[in-house]
């Protein structure tokens, strides 16, 4: 778990993002149910045609971005989708090499690990939870309260808040003891119900990206067993965290999942700030290109086929 404090290198030579303006009646949303009305005037969108080489192959896709001023949560879904498309390339490459992903529905061993969120993801998760039916929302809040009580009992809750409230990026060497202490509890995610994710469609990028190709039983102990995670070209939580830091002038930060809703409520005013949608996506893609540069170098691969 960690967000790099600095990124270097450019990837413009192996990635393109061509824009064109379109109109559409669909709007980006984090609502769990959506009812679309036939609007008299369709909102204007800017279409980004994406073409990028990754260590697992070439990705071509499109992103439809509102041309107006929007909160940063508006681009969380499309950024996650882009990350999932990148991950599918990794899955296919691994499958071609004879190493299929072993994760299956109901396998929740990884749901005992400390999950980091970027600020935009924390705000997005709060939006998702707040539009749930009252009974459902109350059940989640009770689970979160019980989780925080357990973490406080074991002396971890204040340490999670210290990470979320830090005014500088927390180094990995400082996070590692906290990660290990949390995992030693085998404390289930507060959003886990009967070994199933209750917020699956809104789950953090870190959860989406943790896939393994080793036998599932090995996941019972990530520390001692030789678990083989699927490579990840771009960490979407890191991309969104860097984006938030860039547009707000702050430092990249991590929000531990058990306290993400509390943190988002405390910073609700910041969540209401708006930026041009195309500007947010430009900055997001720039961070993504830079991370791909680093990943090509780390794997010792050429960025050109």
Chart the SSEs and their pairings.
Layout: E1 15-23, E2 44-54, E3 57-66, E4 69-71, H1 76-96, E5 116-117, H2 119-130, H3 134-153, H4 157-165, H5 172-184, E6 192-193, E7 196-197, H6 205-209, H7 236-248, E8 255-256, H8 260-266, H9 268-271, E9 274-276, H10 277-299
Antiparallel strand pairs: 1-2, 2-3, 4-9, 5-8, 6-7
Task: Tell me what you see in this structure.
The chain has 305 residues and is of the alpha+beta class. It has one domain. Helices cover 42% and strands 14% of the residues. The strands form four sheets. It has a three-stranded antiparallel beta sheet with strand order 1-2-3. A two-stranded antiparallel ribbon has the order 4-9. Strands 5-8 form a two-stranded antiparallel sheet. A hairpin with a 2-residue loop joins strand 6 and strand 7. The protein is globular. The protein starts with 14 loop residues before the first strand and ends in a 6-residue tail after the last helix.
